[in-house]
Amino acid sequence: MTKADLVEEVSRALTATRKDAETIVETIFNSVVKALRNDDKIEIRGFGSFRTRRRRGRIGRNPKTGARVEVPPKRIPFFKPSKELKSLLNAPASARQTTPQPPGASH
């Protein structure tokens, strides 16, 4: 699924204009990025959580020349799926819904 597909889904679900749906999707993505930049954890119940992890600096090799290269320490985004999401993905095909309900919705 691409970002455009996601915008289309939001537009259809809310019966909103494509422009409004695009604003909603952009706002959500920007909020996630802003929180991760501030080292905050984002937790979406029934879906999963986002956080940053730190990677230590190391010495790497340039694959083309074989020269040693110093790789600086950095932060990387990390996603941990919820138990509910894992069970939905691993449910037998007969138990899966064609359109998943939002977290917290009754089945």
Residues in helices, as a percent range: 25-40%
Number of helices: 3
Radius of gyration: 19 Å
Report the mean per-residue pLDDT as an integer: 90
Q: List low-pLDDT spans.
A: none
Structural class: alpha+beta
Order of helices and strands: HHEEEEEH
Instruction: Give the CATH H-level superfamily of the largest domain.
Output: IHF-like DNA-binding proteins
End-to-end separation = 24 Å
Number of distinct beta strands? 5
- What kind of sheet is the major sheet? 3 strands, antiparallel
- The CATH class of the largest domain turns out to be Few Secondary Structures
Strand order of the largest sheet: 1-2-5
CATH architecture of the largest domain: Irregular
Task: Tell me the quaternary state.
Answer: single chain
- Residues in β-strands, percent: 25-35%
Instruction: Give the overall form.
Output: extended
CATH fold naming of the largest domain: HU Protein, Chain A
| Overall number of structural domains | 2
